[in-house]
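pipeline stage [seq->struct] | target=Putative colanic acid biosynthesis glycosyltransferase | organism=Phytopseudomonas argentinensis | residues=254
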Amino acid sequence: MTQFSIVTINWNNLAGLKQTYQSVAAQTYRNFRWIVVDGASTDGGAEWLATIDEPYAEITSERDKGLYDAMNKGLIKGSATEGYTLFLNSGDFFYDEHVLQKVADAIEQAPGKPRYVYGDYYLQNAEGRLTPQKAKKIEHLVLGMPSSHQAMYFENERLRNVRFRDDFKLSADYCMIVEFLQGQDHQRDVLKIDSPLCIFDTTGVSTSRRFDALKEDMRIRREVMKLSPLHSISLYVLHYVHTHSKLLKAALGK
């Protein structure tokens, strides 16, 4: 029976944390650990977490050095057992109460034990409107994230060998996925589920950080994926134009 480690990072997001908790608690599949790494929240989150009395909850509240430092703490705890780790931070939530069952069934029905499992997702804007997003083929990893990180499951034995790198402030998750999949057989070790697994709230994603992240993605392609400077820069330009076009269409209401 497949076991899951659900890692939730939180800092001063009590409303989002409660939403994530409700989503986790509603899952029909019960073989999971909920690992909460709280950064010593001062908005009542730490006190609220202290009231959680669930056998599956493993909660710590202490200062950290930022998001990816906290995610590394969660990674280490999550990957310490057998199974798979999912990063579902405060404010993130499952698409519905059957997601873990669906993922477990897919893993157990696979011809071999997959290292990396991912699927489709929805984007949710400030007005609550949902936009479906299809996961990309893993062969297109060079173009960017294959899916939302809340729709990705990492096999723990392999996950113990990677970390979120602190030299990438915005794209450490993309870098971790690239390093996680290096040397893996995409046909044997990767399992794509053609079904929505999570809803990602895009509220608060700033325009300036999107463009800064594109620069970090370019570094990852050059330094980690070992693409040529020309190839890396060309992909950066394409992503820059694409992002700018999307923002322009949004501003025009198209």
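stage status: PASS
auto-comment: The chain has a mean pLDDT of 93. The radius of gyration is 18 Å.
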